[in-house]
Amino acid sequence: MGLRYHLLAMRLTRGLAVFLLCFAAGAQAQSWPAKPVRIVVAYPPGGGIDVMARQIGERLTAAWGQPVVVENKPGANTILATDTVAKSAPDGTTVLMTTDATFSINPHLYAKLPFDTQRDFIPVTMLVLLQQMLVANAKLPFNNLEDLVKAAKAKPGSINYASYGSGSQPHLSGEMLKFKAGIDLVHVPYKGISLAVPAVMAGEVQLTFAGIATSAPQLKAGRIKALAIGGAKRSPLFPEVPTFAELGYPEVETHAWFGLFVPAGSPREAVSRIYQEAKKIVDDPDFRQKQLVDKGYEPVGSSPEEFARYIVADRESRGRAVKISGARAE
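Above: the chain sequence. Below: its structure as tokens.
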């Protein structure tokens, strides 16, 4: 009898220990975050990524019961914000919100960065994917990409396009189009996309690549016209605009993405909770339609593992585009 009771007591003790360990682990995971969370945005206030960061921050504050503040750190082609987060405490409470420029393009543009994008960060989730359209001045005689290519071949160097700097997405797209179509377009860099589209409208330049949110009002007003859009499928907002792939130029990539990252070494529970809550926001039907789809964003909400794999492929393809463009940054 004594032996039976002893064995039963041992089993109960072990079971209680396992239960307490599981309870403690669950309590620890649910206690994060225990202090305010900071989202560092690599761009100035007022832009699309800043607006989205603030919308997400409000919803995370409500979900976690902790303040989630947005801090803008623009400068040095996203390097300033990225370096700040890379050197932050790896507790998951400092989050970087940035674009493909940081992780897919900059490693090819700069000979040296103050951080290692592959070693110093954990990808949490890609929030959205967005495609840019090749847009032209409304008064130009060509109305499609085929006619543009013919005009460029007839008078090499007579057509120019605007970007927001060497190595920017419009620059890489323009140089890839030149390479694949065998044409000569003149690159004219501006200080921002907010200047590039008005330059096309005014006739200072003939072309640029611009996101739907930026170009939609001008397209609808007839001040510019769209010749093609990136991506595997047409935009539901502009279904009449064909994709570069449809037109025979699948290598012309115009996409950008917004994503969340934390410093390497951040707790798994922090990564998991940020991802889970961000995905809930992206998947919310009202937010998804009004704040994303209606503004030209493609909702994603990828897992950390999916996002990490995507970045590897994206970095490789952007490396080819940077090489073709010849872009370098100091």
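DSSP finds eleven helices and eleven strands in the chain.
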